[in-house]
Amino acid sequence: MGHEATLQSDLIMNIFHALHTPALWSPWVTLAVAIVTEVLATSSLKASDGLTRLWPSLGAVLGYVVSLYCLSLTQRTMAIGVVYAIWSGVGIVLISLMGWWVFDQVLSPLAVLGMALIVVGVLVLQLWA
Questions:
Q1: Can you give 29-92 as a three-state secondary structure string?
Q2: For residues 78 and 29, what is the distance between their CA atoms, to the nearest angstrom?
Q3: How far from each other are the two terminal CA atoms of the chain, in whole angstroms?
Q4: Contact 120/73 with Cβ under 8 angstroms?
Q5: Spatial distance between the Cα atoms of 1 and 125, rounded to a whole number of angstroms
Q6: Number of domains composing the chain
Q7: Helix, strand, or coil here: 120?
Q8: CA-angle at 95, arms to 56 and 39, nearest 5°
Q9: How far is CA 124 from the centre of its chain?
């Protein structure tokens, strides 16, 4: 195994060790990690060109595993509806912005309006649910 692969393996093990230490993580931090890793995984999936490129494909799989694990930890202490609404809503907005920024995808005014409504919906659910 090369030096780079060893460093990647060590990084992955450190991430999972940190995730297995719940006292260090509030549910909000764990949810934020779930959202960010899901967005990175989805971006890697796009970059993998249909899972034909090794490193982006592995990044996608690893990102989804970490994201779902963090999502499951978050659901231990927060209501499932609130967790899923925040995870999916913020994820939709972030991946749409990532598509615009990284992959030069067009965001129409109606798409921006839709994302704004998603953010408002998540806030309403969080504040008054």
A1: HHHHHHHHHHHHHHHHHHHCCCCCCHHHHHHHHHHHHHHHHHHHHHCCCCCHHHHHHHHHHHHH
A2: 12
A3: 50
A4: no
A5: 48
A6: 1
A7: helix
A8: 50
A9: 21
pTM reported for the whole predicted model: 0.77
Its domain, for residue 101, covers 3-128
**Residue 47 to residue 41: CA distance in whole angstroms:** 10
Query: Tokens 């995870």 identify what position?
Result: 87
Amino acid making up residue 93: V
For the stretch 49-85, pLDDT in tens is: 999 999 999 999 999 999 999 999 999 999 898 899 8
Residue 7 is inside which H or E element, if any? helix 3-19
Torsion over CA: 13, 70, 27, 89 (sign): positive
Q: Going by C-beta distance under 8 Å and a sequence separation of 6 or more, which residues neighbour residue 71?
A: 31, 34, 83, 87
Structure token digits, residue 120: 């408002």
From its phi and psi, is residue 97 left (phi > 0), alpha (psi between -120 and 50) or beta? alpha
Q: How far is the C-alpha of 51 from the C-alpha of 65, rounded, in Å? A: 16
